[in-house]
Structure formats: C-alpha cells, structure tokens
Amino acid sequence: MKAFIVDQYKKDGALRFGEVPEPVVRDHDVLVAIHATSLNPLDTKIRDGEFKLILPYRLPFVLGNDVAGVVVGVGSRVRNFKAGDEVYARPSKDRIGTFAERIAVDEADVALKPTNLSMEQAASVPLVALTAWQVLVERAQLKAGQKVLIHAGSGGVGTFAIQLAKHLGATVATTTSTENVELVKSLGADVVVDYKKEDFAKLLSGYDVVLNSLGKDTLEKSIDVLKPGGKLVSISGPPDVAFAKESGFNWLLQQVMRLLSFGIRKKARQRGVSYSFLFMRANGRQLSEVTTLIESGVIRPIVDRVFPFSATNEAMDYLAKGRAKGKVVIKVK
C-alpha cells in the first residue's frame, strides 16, 4: 500500500512517498481503510527528531496520528466493531502510521465516527480532542465556576479545548492573534488576549487552570496568572518525572526529565501551584464521549484546509508556518 515515510530524522525534511507492507492485524485489531487523516504539531516534531528520546521509532516508519475511515477487517477477538463501520481514532503512540491507505488499530483505541461529520471533519478530531479531555477533565478536573486559560486558542487543541471548557461550565480566557479574535469568541471564549497587542500575564490573575501549548517564556509567565493551588498543565514540555515513570522509562531517563523540568517545577512550588506535563494517550472510550458531544452540537471541529493525499508534504509545510486556524486535514480516499 502507499504511504508517506520518514527515512531519517531531519528538520523540515520531506517525507518519502512509497510502498509499505500491508498492516498486520492482531487478535484485538480493526483494519481501517483510511479516508482522511490530519496533521498535528506532533507530526513535525517526530519528523524533525525532537521526540526521539520519548518516542524511539525504528526507521523507516509511516507518520501520522489521526484517522477516520471504514473498517474493512477485524481480528479474531474483536467484539465491538465489524466491517463497514465508520470509525475514527488516534492510534496508540507505538502504532502510528495514518499517512497511508490502511492501518491496524487496537479496538480499545477506536470509536464510531460522529454521524454528523464528514470523514475529513472527523479526522481532525481524535488527537486534539483527547488532549483537551485528558488535560481538562482528567488532570485538571475542571469544574463549573472555575477559570481556565487556554493558550493558542485558534490552534487545533485550543479550538477544541475552549468549547470543552465552556461545556464544563468554566470561564475561559485564551490567547490568540488579532485576526483570530472573532473565531475564538465564536467558540465561547469569555476573555480574549491579543498577544500581538497585550501581555496576558499583566491582564489575567486568579486562574484555576492553565493549558499551555507554547514555549518556555509563555510557560513561566503562566505561573503568575494562577491562584494558589492552581494547576499548570503543559502539552509542549518540559516532560517531568511523573511522566517518565508513567511511561516506564529507565532510571537514567527519569533523571534527565527531572533535570529538564527542575526550573519550572521549582518556580511553581514557590508560587504554591502545581506543574505537570501531559502526553496524551489513545483512548476509544473517551473518544466515544467526545462523539456524543459532537453529535449533540456541543462541540464542532474547526478545519482550516484539506489537502489531497499526494500533497502531504505541502500540508506539512503549511502546518509548520503556524498560521492554521484549527486543523489541517489530508483526504486520503
């Protein structure tokens, strides 16, 4: 089957379009004919080699972390899906490869596609939806009446997280650029900080939760907007010891992550708040909850552009410019 392949780690390197073997279908797997996939900053970081330490893939490998498509086969022990089902998923981090014509995914990571979405819209959802869910619902346990700051509100995670936080009853602040102010307001943001004109750390205070997806400067300034007992959750690093232990990393790697996160953890402690790093995980049950929210009209996916499969490298270049509103999608079939 045809796929886009990483042959070597290289910053801004092109993926090779070529043939790869058909997926091996294990007992608990569903085989999905991929209709659409979407791009995430994670894809560019993997391609560039930035995540080699925590995601040691064996070269060459197929890139891609989101899928929407049709089940065309199932393993001998699959009970919840059958051929013909329209599904979507974020495959587990050890089994990525959605920039291809087919993929085998563990049924525990799969959910039925929302009936009110096209394949292209559905493909934009899994990774960002699960990230938002695991930060806001699981880690932060965001409750009605609390205040949350979501950085980069017009991005893939941001557009989803704003809507989810509003559904949970929180007051939502977000940072974005001038041209995206109206977009984030339409998604439910109560307070919008135009980072081109304003400094969020000077305008905001007393927040319960911050979801950070940006760099070191933004991360450190985010501590100042939290009230005592507040939670700073970062999806862009630095990784911490708890993450290393959860991931089963060896003692040496745990110490590396302890050092990487030492500065931000120390500053958080001094301010009486907590810092944690979250690397989202595949979860079909949570994705089914997301399906319910989408089908009931609570959340709508935001798609910036759809590229044909043949233009996957062009789509990667477009994503890297950082101008996309919501998600960049690739139509495979």
TrEMBL record:
SMART domains: PKS_ER
InterPro entries (alphabetical): ADH-like_N, ER, GroES-like_sf, NAD(P)-bd_dom_sf, Quin_OxRdtase/zeta-crystal_CS, YIM1/Zinc_Alcohol_DH_Fams
Keyword Oxidoreductase recorded: yes
Domain Enoyl reductase (ER): 13-330
The keyword Isomerase appears for this protein: no
Keywords: Oxidoreductase
Name listed for the protein in its UniProt record: NADPH:quinone reductase-like Zn-dependent oxidoreductase
Natural source organism: Agrilutibacter niabensis
